Amino acid sequence: MEEDILKKTFKRLKQKNADLNNVLDTRCQNCCQNLALEQNFRTTPGSPNPSDSSLKYLSSPFSWSVYSHPDYPGLLIVKGAFSPAGLTDLLSNVLLEYPAGLGMVQDTSGHHVRSNLSCLGTTYPEGKSYWSTDDDQGNSLIDKLRWISTGYHFDWTKREYREGFRSPFPEDMADIGHNIVKRLKICGDLKPDSAIVNFYHPGDTLSFHQDELEWDLSKPLVSISLGLPGMLCVGGTKKVTPTPPHSTHSW
Hints:
By secondary structure, the protein is α+β, with helices and mostly antiparallel strands. It is 16% helix and 11% strand. The chain starts with a helix and ends with a strand.
């Protein structure tokens, strides 16, 4: 029987005093020796659109450091994509605005906000935020919030995206995804229309999974890490493929 490297790695990293000596970290020169710095991505992005909302978030592409891994073609790790002020503004939006209604679902499901709470039947009080709302035990709902989806929502029962099950997609999020991909020159005109915002509390983890149900698998996935440092593992095509963990940072 083949050894499940993914499961073994995940179990090891969840330990309280896990050995992090083999973690790839772009902030440490000795910790990213297996990564290749992609100098060819540092090109002029062209004249920006004055109405582009991502301009207040992203830094100049000339300050970006883009890394690839020889064993994982297609994986790009971007360091320094956001300006310090842009990170603060984006984090504020994610924590304050997105939970307050950007996930309004335009269907007959009765959900006011598409999140793990709405799927569990928790209602969102009109005019209040997750930060100020107490449940029956006197806890803020933000303590229970784990994810919010916006744009096209994934139907976990049927395991599919479908027309009619969607909400307005935040313009700033769409512009950020579009411009990151454009500046990296890894595909044509990307128009993001779906996102899941995960909220990780102390001790939370997200198990290994595959993103294979999107409508167009030729388009890249853009993952943005905000807040405290975390650990990201990217696997190969088989569970026996070694998966080097990457340390993710907002800054």
